Every structure is written in C-alpha cells, then in structure tokens.
Amino acid sequence: MTYMLDTNICSYIMRQHSRSILETLENRVAEGHILCMSVIRILSYLP
Which residues contact 45 (CB under 8 A, 6 or more apart)? Predict the structure, then answer.
C-alpha cells in the first residue's frame, strides 16, 4: 500500500518531533509499504 503524506503532516512531524508518528511510519516502511509526499505549488503572476 502507498501512503501519501500531505505537507501539513510532514511539517507537524518536523516541528513536533513526534516519536510515535515516526515509529508508525517506520513500521509501515519495514512492512513493505511506500511513503510519498505530494507538493503542489500555485504560482500567481501579476498582470
């Protein structure tokens, strides 16, 4: 299974250093699951 992490979750993990979330993600990878992150940037151009 593939787990797509949004930028808010990644930011939370980096700010809070949540060991329980990191352990859960590490366990998923050890079980053969894939973790990925999607980043969408919207650029606005001034006329």
Answer: none
Q: Say yes or no to pLDDT of 26 above 90.
A: yes
**Cα-flanking dihedrals φ and ψ of residue 7, to 5°?**
-65, -30
Give the separation between CA 27 and CA 39, rounded to whole angstroms.
24
- State how far Cα 11 lies from the chain centre: 8
State how far the alpha carbon of 29 is from the alpha carbons of 5, 12, 24, 33, in Å: 13, 19, 9, 5
Q: Considering the entire predicted model, what is its pTM?
A: 0.62
Q: Rounded to whole angstroms, how far apart are CA atoms 7 and 36? A: 11
For the chain, domain boundaries? 2-37
